[in-house]
User: Fold these one by one.
Assistant:
Number 1:
Amino acid sequence: MVSANRIIIAGGGLAGLIAAIRLNRAGYACTLIEKKRYPFHRVCGEYISNETTAFLKREGLYPEEFNPPQITELHLSSVSGKSSTTPLDLGGFGVSRYAFDNYLINIAQKEGVQVLLDTEIEQISFDKVFQIKTTVQSFESDFVIGAFGKRSRLDVQLSRKFIKERSPYVGVKYHVRTAHPANRIGLHNFRGGYCGVSNVEDGKTNICYLTHRDPLKKLGSIEALEKHIVFENPLLRELFRNAEFLFDKPEVINEISFETKEPVWNHIFMAGDAAGMITPLCGNGMAMAIHSAKIVTDLLIEHQGRSRDELETAYTRAWRRAFSTRLWFGRQIQHKLFGTEWGSNLGVTLAVHSKFIANSLIKVTHGKPF
Ligand SMILES: Cc1cc2nc3c(=O)[nH]c(=O)nc-3n(C[C@H](O)[C@H](O)[C@H](O)COP(=O)(O)OP(=O)(O)OC[C@H]3O[C@@H](n4cnc5c(N)ncnc54)[C@H](O)[C@@H]3O)c2cc1C
């Protein structure tokens, strides 16, 4: 039997923040360690599926004060700009990570979570208890929740299998002001990628696209990529032309991997992208991060008497039940449909012309409210 007195949360994205707040409320001494300082921007489409809304409201964590736009329809377009609109059964809301993560860290700190910012975890090792070495100090803990996102130096230190493979995807994000309908998420296809467009707080619009690194390498800059490839879709060309850009330069990340990961590794309970990342096309990575934080914290709170082995088995099973199927569909759509130019054209053209296909794709890649 393990007494979960001390819990370290490694990483303060949505998974880490929600886990820290819930465990602290349940009386655990938990420390959240984040390498950056809030508020900060992240490459993310910032559309949050309504799968999360009931949970966030129950926990008093729904970001009501930002009056998030409610998103109820999907506007899909193909490379040539052919488009159709389809209602979203469940829909979602829009809030920037800059605002939402900062809102949650303020709640965590106000409620007494020990928070270490500007502190990178360099090493996590386990021998009956965990030893955590950071850039500032070292800690011992009974449990670690790994919420360090899609790719971290910790994955290298922990010798995780997926980190050995290079990944070809690049993500680019802007905030702009433009006349984008508040209830709409746009998903616009271009050669080798797709671009999400939806509103966040204060009437701002998020433009976020995922592409392959090869055309970017060939053309030499984001600007050239947009001019020669992204703007082939006339809807995207118009969108960029009429927008007022609010960042000096785009937020960019690379090496985005959708490969299979393990929900428990070296006794660490992985949550959010650290356990498995769904393609952004599905628009529910944040919902999965929040949901996985709920699953792992419910388990730690409700099953205190169980052995470490039992807890790890129960978490792996619960995580797979909740997410494996949609991750698999997400990977098929990303690699098979969007992995080739003709595949993505065909996929989007079919979805543009058939509401049934569009709805089926949405259904298999989304979960239910929790
Ligand atoms: C292009 C793109 C568009 C997307 N669009 C959407 C969308 O519209 N809707 C949606 O739901 N999802 C979207 N996603 C996915 C979504 O962004 C992620 O699923 C979500 O951010 C995962 O949250 P997380 O808490 O697991 O990780 P993150 O939010 O990445 O947080 C991880 C944290 O860990 C910290 N960290 C890392 N290593 C260390 C360390 N060694 N020590 C201390 N701290 C560390 C990082 O600084 C970071 O703050 C998109 C993703 C991409 C790439």
Number 2:
Amino acid sequence: MKKGLTLLAAAALLSLGACGDDEDKEGTSGKAQTLSVSVNAQGRLIGIAPVKGGPVRIDFRNAAKNPYDLQLVRVDGGQSLAQVMRVIEGGEGGPIPSWLHGAGGVGTTKPGRSASATQVLPEGRYYAIASADTEGEREVKPATAALRVQGGESGGDLPSAPATVTATDYAFEAEGLKQGRNRIRFVNDGDELHHIVAFQLAPGKSVADVKRFFRTEKGRPPIVEGVESSTAVIDGKTEQVVDMEFANAGKWALVCFISDRKGGPPHAAKGMISEVEVG
Ligand SMILES: [Cu+2]
């Protein structure tokens, strides 16, 4: 995604890598409906189909040559995709209208890789937006599709997850993170929209160094480059179970680059950079 709702701040500084391997057979929720979605080699989003309200598992496969994320957005009214894209692409720090909801999805996924997320999707009108991380090369237009979530709640709960990350306005707490692929219950306990971008701290560096780096953008990034991992954006008071990849054990920083609904600086600038231990 670009600007506003996105990883722009991070993408500008680093080349975002991310999620995962394909060894992803465990932990499948028995009851959740599944949407198997991919970005194909031509950069088209395929597999989006109507689902019922309730828990929906999204299996996302990136078959394109660039890293892609998949962001679901719910709209309260009849807002068009163009209106949504104007918010998302309309400039960092701009307001996020109350009709637009971050409805999860998966974070940046490398070419040839897959990642899953399960989230309770209320009935309504959605758009799925897959954005390429072109790493400074020529921009690629996001791949998009309308998604209808119909009435008639399906049963089931979110699958269990061995790790939890809780976001508040403006901090993260985490437990149970392990080296490798993690299935994480990502809880947004705040009122604002949040996502997780995880960076491994470089040897001898601290969260204070990361905060200084994002504030000043001076010097070498105090992080290990190429092992970032991220999630999609979710609304306040919502949660999802999502895959993230922590390439190495040790100290990591969880960072959010989303702005408040009323606009303003990214949450990282408000101190939403929290140190966590990956075991
Ligand atoms: Cu945030």
Number 3:
Amino acid sequence: MRPLAKGWCPGAYTPMASGDGLIVRLRPRLSRLSLQQGLDICDLAERHGTGVIEITSKANLQLRGIRQEQYEDILNALLALGLLDETAEIESRHNIVLAPDWEQGSLSQTLAEEFYERLPELPELPAKFSFALDVGKTRRLAAVSSDIRMEQSENGAVLVCADGAEMGLSVPPNDAITAAIKLAHWFAKTGVAEHKRMQAHLQTQVLPDEWQTQARTSHDAPLAPGPSDIGFVLGVPFGQTDSKHLRQLLLSHTPRAIRLTPWRSLILEGTGHIKTPHFIVNHTDTLLAVQACPGAPSCTSATVETRNLARALAGQTSGILHVSGCSKGCAHPKAADITLVRENGQFSLIKKGCSWDEPSRKGLSADEILNSTDVL
Ligand code: SF4
């Protein structure tokens, strides 16, 4: 059975204590930082913490290892940088992922800005409940976890969909945010405590017909590392980098701005080809098929480091490989082709399943996994 997740997500106002200090998560508007903000974040991460910077699967940015006694200082600095929501309550509602290749002045940008303005109109929602704004020419976010989706519809309309439904409601663009807020209120009114996400909710609750008037498309094209129309896309291995490497990257290429993506990558606006050993620059890189949580010592639930094993196994398995410090499976809370979970000092192996599923083998050492040809 899936272990219970924490009932809340860290923010800047609500940092989470971890094995290496506080985790302070920022939710930059439009998932975009100016070059100067990016450089200032590197300085803050170093001055107040371990320098570790992470990109989350919701296109947010988090600083790890922040020292408790310096928390107020970092909060004031983030406020001065314009990277904080007005209040903790607004921050907790600020859960939207935007297809990252939006253009200046586009419908994506207009709707995102309207959504931010209207955050106070949202009902109280579970911490992980989120919105996806995917109204660009190409659909990008079909595989990104979200509860209410706004997608491109016919003739410039917007399809507002409950995640898990095959159809949505087509509305003129001006009405899209109103419709998304209305659907969130329907969820909140009909929700039951154990259904924290829309898809689970629809297993027991019938979605009213008004929300199912037009079929969705199945097309999906996430942005892979490499060149793109708006700048070079760089994968961040395991979603984690540090202030030194990020600063070096920004100073060498001086992008107009940095965009964060839900695929744990960065887009450096206006840049051409980039060569760097610290980021993933090619869509064929085998690390892209490997997921691993921070493990020990960053996480108090872990007894072992996970990413060295994950790196060593990159390219040795077919499909997605997930190495997890415990059965919660934070890095990949869904099925993978191969999952290795640390339990009682050894690894357990799960094939085509989640980290909390019954393993097919237990008691494996890292050496055995690395050196035997018949384990994976
Ligand atoms: S999966 Fe990894 S990061 Fe998540 S709680 Fe377990 S050890 Fe910690």
